[in-house]
Structures are given as structure tokens and as C-alpha cells.
Amino acid sequence: MNNFFSNKAAFITLIACCLVVIISLGIRQTFGLFYFDFSTDLDITISQFGFAMGLQLFLWGAFNPLFGVITDKYGGSIAIFIGFLFYLAGVLLFYLGFNTGVNFIYTIGILIGVGLGSTAISIPVSVVAKHYPSSKRTMATGIVTSAGSFGYFVSPIFVSYSLSENGWEPTMLYFCFLLGLGLLVALFISTPKIPIGSDQNNNQTATEALKEALSNKSFIYLTLGFFVCGWHIALVATHIPTYMMDNGLPDWCATTVLSLIGLFNMIGTIVSGYLATRYSKKYILSSIYLLRGVSIIIFIFFPPSVINSIIFGITFGFLWLSTVPPTNGIVAHIFGTKYVGMLYGIVFVSHQIGSFLGAYLGGVFYELNGNFDYAWYGSIALSIFAGLIHLPIKERVIERIQPV
Fold first, then answer.
1. How many Cα atoms are found within 13 Å in the side-chain-facing hemisphere of 329?
2. For residue 382, which phi and psi values (nearest 5 degrees)?
């Protein structure tokens, strides 16, 4: 264990970043459970709710590169602290009564969306990546991603219990306390001035680093592939309950599948992070996307059943966020860790565009055809696309000519 943690700061930062994503993603994952209460008490329509959730996803991705720049220049603790301020403002204002009509969009959609830009996955992952050499980096980032999965797993259980026992307003207040804890945790995050494994002679500016990445074909391939990850996750998380209901499965089945996804994702991300330290990251990513396609094919073409649903929850859960460690690892390996927060943020924008389209177009296909068939077919095609587009990636460190 001492060989894994290079110093005390690396250990404390890893623990703190794990707590950050547990709080941030745990709360974010449960908003769908509030819809019935919001509809009854606040007169929020399904279209208002869907728009707010979609806007939240988009702003999460849109603000991620900005927080990446802040992370790379001023440190992860500053970026994450600012993000939690926005997140807390959104939940607190909502609790205080700014929660109907356009205020619902401002609080749940805009403020929380901006807050997620620095507190959910990518910024914590990029900060941890700066503390570890390439031989340990994907394992460390896999641990952070797995912590987010733990948040996915436990938060629905807590929120379901709190909603039934206390109602939505006290539950929102509990969220405020958790986000206050997140502000405190952010202070324990440190960002190395010279990231481990970085080129100390790299005098690049952020603008030069961005231009370099956008002109690199491997970066473009990686960005396009991550779009598919976002599509898959949003489609499944948003529409699985309706799909199962339409196929006559019991109500508890959808909850079980989502819980299994959270549980087995903890295992999948750790395994992915470990494998990425030993084998080619692009082949790992290609395999993950192709296996997602296989999982979907079995799920939709085999007769609907509880057993088939459980198998899908386990297999797709194992592959859920297992793309994150090797994706971040490739960015850090090719371009170095100096601007990894900003560059991974750009890749993540593509992920969130995919998330928005997966959730939105899944609903559009359902309204047009009365089922999700075309959404599933598109997901399978995208799995093949992502499996192939990662293969041309060149996992070589860029050699920069330094001025004499």
C-alpha cells in the first residue's frame, strides 16, 4: 500500500475526491425519485422536469472545461469548492421556496448543472491523476470512479426511505447538509504544482495545449467515442423503468436493475483501472463498448424476464463507468498531466452531449413509435462505432520541441 501512495497528500486527496463524487453523484442520481412529489406539490409538468434535467446534463458538460482550466491553474480545491457553492445554492434556494415555474429551471437545472461541472467525476479524477505516475494513474482514477458508483448504489435507498418517512422538503434539507460537508472536504484536496510524471520543461499555455489536442486525431477519436458512453448511460438510466413496465415486468425489477448497475460498476471501474495499467488502454475501451452492444442485444432480443433483466443489470453495470479510467489515462499519457483537467473536460463535453441526446431522443422515439426499439438499435450501432473508432488511437507521448 505504501508503494501505491507516493506521499501523504496523494492519499488524502484520493480519499477527499472519493467523498466528493459520492456526495455529488449520489444526490444527482436521485432527482427522478422526487418527480411525483414535485408534480403534486409544485405543479411541475413532465416536460418542465425533463427540460430541467436535460439542461442540468448539458451545463454539467459545458462548464466542465472551464472548471478544468481553474483546476489546472489554481488547484482542484478551488474548482470543487466553487462547484459545491453553486450546487448548494441550487438545493438551498429550492428548499427555501424558489421551486415553481421558471425558478425550478434556475435552481434544479442551471445552478445544480453548473455545480456538477466541477464536483462530478471528471475534475476529481483529473486532480487525482496529477498525483500518480502512469503506472498507477488509471488504478487511482478507477478508485474515484468506483466511489461515484457507491453513491449511485446507496443514495436511492436513503432517498426512498426519507421521502416515505419525512417527505421531500426535509430530504432536500439533508442534501444541504451533505453539500456543506462537500465544501469542507474540498479544502483537503491538493493539486501538485508539478504533476507526477509531467514534463517539467513543458512551457505550454492552456491555449497552446487546447490547439495541440484538437489537431490530434487520437484526441478526436477518443472524444467521439466518449459521446457513445454518454448516450448509453442516459438512455438506460432514464428509460429502463418505462421499458420494463411496457414488457410486463414487476415494479421492483427496474429498481433492482439500477441498483445492480451501481453495485457492479464499483467492481467494473476498479478492474478497468487495473487492466489499463497493464494493457493497451485503447483496446480496453474498444472491448468495453463492443461488450455493451452484446449486453444490449441479449437484453432486448431475448424474451423479457426477471432473470434476463438481472443479467443486464450485472453486465451493463460492470461496463457502466469503466470507460472513465482508460479514457482519462489516454489523455494524460499522450498530452501529459499539466492540462489534463481542461483536456479531459473537453472530452467530457462530448459525453454530456451524448447523455442529453440519449435521454431526449429515447423519449422522442417512444412517442413516435410506442416503444424504444429504434433507440436500442441506435445504441447497438453506436457500440460498434465506438469499438472501431478507438482502434486507430496512437498511445504515444507527444514530443514537443522546447525553445533553446
1. 33
2. -65, -35
The three cell numbers locating residue 151: 453513491
Query: Which of the 8 DSSP states describes residue 32?
Result: G
For the chain, list the domains and their CATH numbers. 8-389 (1.20.1250.20)
Q: What is the pLDDT along the chain (404 residues), one digit of tens a residue?
A: 456 666 788 889 999 999 999 999 889 877 877 877 888 899 987 667 777 877 888 898 889 888 988 988 889 999 999 999 999 999 999 999 999 989 999 999 999 999 999 998 888 988 888 888 777 777 787 788 888 888 888 887 788 789 889 999 999 999 999 999 999 999 999 888 766 655 555 677 878 888 888 889 999 999 999 999 999 988 887 788 778 888 888 877 877 887 788 889 888 988 888 898 888 999 999 999 999 999 999 999 999 899 999 999 999 999 988 898 899 889 888 888 777 778 887 898 898 889 888 877 888 888 788 888 999 999 999 999 999 999 999 988 877 555 43
The three grid cell numbers given for residue 346, joined into one nine-digit string: 473537453
Q: What is the spatial distance between Cα 131 and Cα 149, in angstroms, rounded to a whole number?
A: 22
> Does the predicted model carry a pTM greater than 0.90?
no
CA distances from 370 to 112, 180, 298 (A): 32, 43, 21
Q: Exposed, middle or buried by CB within 10 Å (0-12, 13-18, 19+), for 393?
A: buried
Torsion from C-alpha of 13, 74, 53, 298, nearest 10 degrees: -50
